[in-house]
From TrEMBL:
It is an enzyme of class 3 (hydrolase). This is Purple acid phosphatase. Residues 98-283 form the Calcineurin-like phosphoesterase domain. Keywords: Glycoprotein, Hydrolase, Signal. One of its GO terms (molecular function) is acid phosphatase activity. It comes from Nippostrongylus brasiliensis. Residues 18-90, 368-449 form the Purple acid phosphatase N-terminal domain. Residues 1-16 form the signal peptide.
Length: 669
């Protein structure tokens, strides 16, 4: 039986009205983060409950003033806890800094109806670099803590999937920020993935093209989360024409590193990452299983490299985690009326580890906007983040009834500035949330609701997209409509330009998404057998003439160099199952790949990456769309790429499957 949680946000009329309300996972199923924005200082109190007439829970979050350009905003964050599983609770664009952060305000308010209902998980991309230390990105969102508190990288478990989000921007901008962030993230990634199994991964071979499964590689830890899925912005590989993103130093830096900068591909292979999502390229491309440019393309005895389709369609990807052995992926084309233009299943044996329309908000500066949720790290907590343009309280009330918001949390407020606009990001955490329970929460006088996931869910669906944007958000309407209809349980956005126009792009985008991200949100490999990562810059991509796929930055991110560690080594070491990348403006799916060595269905073959398409590019399209990932159980994850250009048709569909407890071996390519 399902119950409903209603959440209310307390605010005074005018500039303190909460907007841009969104949810995020906090780290466990009983907690949900709520984040919203006001334009003047206000309380960060959230009321929530399972009935709109009984918001008996109250939580007072935090408020933080921040400024972009001339606009001051207040971000409020509150944490609803004690949430019950399977219970309904009431309740990324790019260049968010543009126009003093107004773009970010518009974006967050457009999406607020969605993001205030389901969790909205993000990673930074190159356009999040606002010249102010990623202020718009850091202040608008509240991702699970990793000890560094900058939202750039983190992980969380959901059912049979371990999700890993990484920043490729540490690599892309290392010449200005230094190599310290790269090394910090790389060390964290190795530790995070190492916790996914109990055995000594250093003794394993890196050549995953060897089909003989090492049964001893299956660990008790990964038995719980057999899938590892990653998402990051810049791609490891891509096939874009005349794009340095696919062949530049940056691309190589991300994937394989350089000198003391380690790349990301090695840890992905070492620890058996099953799936990766990338952004950045403005098209859809799917790759065959690939590792260091070696791949599988078919089950035949001979590999024949064929050109892959590439469409200029807007869209997004839908990933359905079916179970512990199967994942379904569909690419939805917005240009083709949401037709599925790519559809595939990922499967593995048990134990094997191997919208242009926006919702205009009247200018009331302290009214909370851009409300969104995000995971905090466990099922009983949820982060809430919102924005105001004046200093305001960060009080969040929540409860299981809209009329009984019995819990109150006082969140935090931080002022930050982009251009001439000062904004205030408010963050509050709802705690003690019960699984499968609907909660209502209130920020000021704006109320929202969301439903927590079941305790330790075996199956759930995720929407993944990158570089969506506000002004060119062809997939936005489809994502909001399907998200509000309950088609997916949380969102992963792999970055884009929220700082543009002094942050106005981010404001617009977050407000557009607010209806869904304010309601949707929702390591030990035995408990979470899947590890899924997401980061902005890709390890691999196939853009033609794009340095992001082959330059030193790409290598730095993936493998690092003598001074900076890459990320791939950690991914491989700790057997990440799936990774999502952004940065490239197309969809591309790869075969299982490790350091350029890949599987493509049984053939052992190698190819040069500068050939287009990349030989381990299993599927790619430049149609607008997004990805839906369905975690079916501990052994199956389903991925779908949705094409907006093709009327939300599934243009890519695959299952990921592995045996219970197994981890993809680290082998020499």
């Amino acid at each position: 039986m399902l119950s409903i949680l209603l959440l209310g946000l307390l605010f005074s009329m005018g500039e303190c009205a909460p907007e841009q309300v969104h949810l995020a996972f906090h780290g466990n199923y009983s907690v949900m983060n709520v984040v919203w924005t006001t334009f003047s200082s206000d309380s960060s109190t959230v009321l929530y409950g399972t009935s709109p007439n009984s918001l008996k829970y109250t939580v007072v979050g935090t408020q933080k003033a921040w400024r972009t350009g001339s606009i001051t905003r207040y971000s409020h964050r509150a944490l609803m806890d004690g949430l019950q599983p399977s219970t309904q609770y009431c309740d990324i664009s790019y260049d968010l800094h543009t126009d003093d952060g107004r773009r970010g305000d518009k974006f967050m308010n457009e999406f607020e109806p969605l993001l205030s209902r389901i969790p909205y998980m993000v990673v930074a991309g190159n356009h999040e670099n606002d010249g102010e230390n990623f202020t718009n990105f850091q202040e608008r969102f509240w991702m699970p803590h990793n000890g560094y508190h900058d939202n750039q990288f983190y992980s969380f478990d959901l059912g049979p999937v371990h999700w890993v989000a990484l920043s490729t921007e540490y690599y892309g901008f290392y010449t200005t920020v230094g190599k310290g962030p790269v090394l910090t993230q790389y060390s964290w990634l190795n530790n995070d993935l190492a916790a996914s199994f109990l055995y000594n991964a250093e003794n394993l071979s890196m050549n995953f093209l060897n089909l003989a499964t090492n049964k001893k590689s299956a660990s008790a830890n990964r038995h719980k989360t057999p899938w590892i899925v990653s998402y990051l912005h810049r791609p490891f590989y891509c096939s874009a024409a005349s794009s340095d993103d696919c062949s530049s130093y940056d691309n190589s830096l991300i994937r394989v590193g350089y000198e003391d900068i380690p790349g990301l591909e090695y840890p992905f292979l070492k620890y058996g990452v099953d799936l990766g999502f990338w952004g950045h390229m403005h098209f859809y491309e799917r790759f065959y299983p690939v590792a260091n440019k070696q791949y599988w393309s078919s089950v035949s005895s001979q590999c024949k490299l064929l050109p892959q389709r590439s469409r200029p369609n807007y869209g997004y990807t839908v990933l359905t985690v079916a179970n512990s052995t199967h994942i379904h992926i569909e690419q939805i084309s917005i240009d083709l009326d949401e037709a599925v233009v790519d559809d595939f299943w990922l499967s593995k044996d048990p134990g094997f580890v191997a919208t242009d329309e926006m919702r205009y908000v009247q200018l009331v500066y302290s009214a909370p906007e851009q409300v969104h949720l995000s995971f905090r790290g466990n099922y009983s907590e949820m982060n809430v983040v919102w924005t105001t343009f004046d200093k305001d309280n960060s009080t969040l009330l929540y409860g299981s009834s809209p009329s009984s918001l019995t819990f109150s949390v006082e969140g935090s407020e931080k002022a930050w500035k982009t251009g001439g606009i000062l904004r205030y990001t408010h963050e509050a955490t709802m705690t003690d949330l019960l699984p499968s329970t609907t909660y209502w929460y209130r920020i000021g006088k704006r109320s929202f609701q969301f439903k927590t996931l079941p305790a330790n869910p075996e199956s759930f669906r995720v929407c993944v997209f990158g570089d969506l944007g506000y002004e060119h958000g062809h997939s936005t309407a489809s994502i909001i409509r399907n998200g509000m209809a309950g088609m997916f349980d949380f969102i992963i956005h792999i970055a884009y330009d929220l700082h543009s126009d002094a942050g106005r792009t981010g404001d617009k985008f977050m407000n557009v998404l607010e209806p869904v991200i304010s309601r949707n949100a929702v390591s030990n490999r035995q408990r979470t057998p899947w590890i899924v990562s997401y980061l902005h810059r890709p390890f691999y991509c196939s853009s033609k003439g794009n340095n992001d796929c082959s330059d030193s930055d790409s290598a730095l991110i993936r493998v690092g160099d003598s001074k900076k560690p890459g990320l791939e080594e950690v991914f491989l070491k700790y057997r990440l199952d799936v990774g999502f990348w952004g940065h490239k403006h197309f969809y591309e799916r790869f075969y299982p790949v490790a350091n350029g060595t890949y599987w493509n269905g049984g053939c052992h073959s190698s190819g040069t990456f500068d050939k287009h398409p990349t030989p381990f590019s299993a599927k790619r399209t430049n149609q607008y769309g997004y990805t839906i990932m369905t975690v079916a159980n501990a052994t199956h994850i389903h991925l779908e790429q949705i094409s907006i250009d093709l009327d939300e048709a599934v243009v890519d569909d695959l299952w990921l499957r592995k045996d219970i407890g197994s981890v993809t071996s680290e082998r020499e390519a």
